[in-house]
Amino acid sequence: MQDATSASPGADHCEECGVAVRQRPTCVEYEGEEIFLFHPVFCADCLLGLCRRYSVACANCGGVIPPYSMVGVLKADNGERQYVHMTTRCTSVGSAFHGYLGKGTLGRFVQVEAC
Ligand SMILES: [Zn+2]
Ligand SMILES: [Zn+2]
What we know:
four-stranded antiparallel sheet; binds zinc ion
């Protein structure tokens, strides 16, 4: 996450299609969820495409969770992970983890204190 500005001083380029992305964060709205993405760099079209491909269902409210948004992570008994929104609108059901939903896989996630 530290190398976002390492390369060219000018415009960044979409990692999917290579188009110049001058305005960041990239903002899209998908299924009522707003996504603001600083890194990696995607143009709005590609980000929307990724949302369609990689969104997961929220285990709590049943809504979609687009990639590159904060998620709560629940571990089911069978070792599968379930995801919940990390928004006040969708109050977590006591999730012990939160993380960052990436492109098809979960990125780093950290345990948070139960409260
Ligand atoms: Zn693109
Ligand atoms: Zn939810």
